[in-house]
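To: structure subgroup
Subject: Chain for Friday's discussion

All,

I'm putting the inputs and outputs inline so they're searchable in the archive.
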Amino acid sequence: MKIKFLSKEDMKLLKRAFTYVKPYKLRLLLFFICISSSIIFGLIEPYIFGVLISSLPQGNLDILVKCLVFLAIVSLSQLVIMHFYSSIETYLNNNIVKDLKCDMYGKILNLPVKAFDEMPVGEFISRLYNDAAALSDIITFQFVNTIIDILKAIVIGFVVFKINIRLALVVVACFPFSYYIFVKYGKKLKKKGAELKNITDYYFSNVQQSLQGIREVKCLGIKKHNFMEFDNISNDVKDKGIEMALTNIVAHDLSSFINIASSILVMGIGGYFVINKILPLELFIAFSSYSKQFSNSLMNITKMNSTIQQALTSLERIFGLMDNLSYSNEYFGEKSIMEIQGNIKFTNVSFSYGEDGNILKDINFQVMGNKKLAIVGKSGAGKSTILNLLLRLYDYDSGEITIDNIDIKDFDERSLRSHISVIRQDPFLFNISIMENIKIANSSATDEDVYDACKSAYIHEFIMSLPNKYNSIVGENGVNLSGGQKQRIAIARGLIKKSKIILFDEATSALDNESQYFIKQS
């Protein structure tokens, strides 16, 4: 039976992962120069040490001094090399993770809203935060260290064969056993790693949902229930983590046993050779050090198997998200329309959110520019859906929606979104200042523009009463404000955008009648 360490799919993942290294090829070259230099100095040191030890019984002070000087030079050289090695590794790690996260976040931003309806936000966060780190880990740490150990094993293998073939065969004979452990337990670790990642996704989603809804958790009196659910999920994460760790421990222990057996055999046979003058003492000392490095390299490869398999699982999840065929990216037309009249027309528009049947069926209506239209109906009738279709947060199943007789699918994204403002019943505010929350809709707006918009939204006086006025931080999703205050700031944000089309989705529901009157007048 043919044993494979990496499948074709794994190799494709790694090949794609290494595209993120291309912008840093020069630093990667320096990285490998440091590695090669470190290996060379690592080979010199045991030989010098062997000569030093063998010179002691002879009382040769000159050889002792020379050996100590050479050891000092080699050690200092390795120290300098490791400094550059660590500096380059840090640079590569941070830049590769940043590049990947930007690509992932760009993909997430361009997913249709439907994707966020079906996949918990916590899963996106888990992949963006946890899995992205796996890429730099596998490239600059696991992969490089594996390369180092493979190169060391090859070079040291050549050296030990030059010293003594029979002793070298004892060391090399252990390799097939280590390789078998590497492959056998690698498959188990990859499977368990995937299970752990999936449970971790659910863990993130549950925590995020609970903390976002902390007021409901407290008011509904379900803190105990919520904690028990968290405890159960945490136990699942713990159990899977222990399973994976135990599997890795078994693999490591088996490799350690092989390493110990190899060392004992080398010491026994090598000692016999020294006693019978078959092998000089200094070469035996050097061989012992080399064989230990050789065995450690094999054991390190086995130890790395756990992290490599976890990293491969993360790469599958990263590129699975970026290549997700279930959701195509948002697409827009190429028409850049600078000015519109604001004439909206729905013609035989039908839409459903899935297999639950049509929310809208053959809807027809028209609104001329500078006119108002109120859409009324019972809850769930599709009022908000109409606004979402006009904004192209969802695409209708059939029919046509036009603005100024131009299909909204022909507008480029900037044109469509710049000509429409939407103010919702529960608007989202960013955890920044009031001024920044309003200006975010129109980066060219001046402070005076913001003041005018806030006066029109009947919120200026309240803002001026705050200690930091317009520089006051609203808190996460406007937690420091009342529902009505959030709505008024959202209205000001909508007004400052100066769009031809303004959509109100029950946006004055939290306002008193007087405030509603003034806002409608504005």
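Points worth raising on Friday:
The longest helix spans residues 223-275.
The chain has two domains: 8-322, 344-521.

D.
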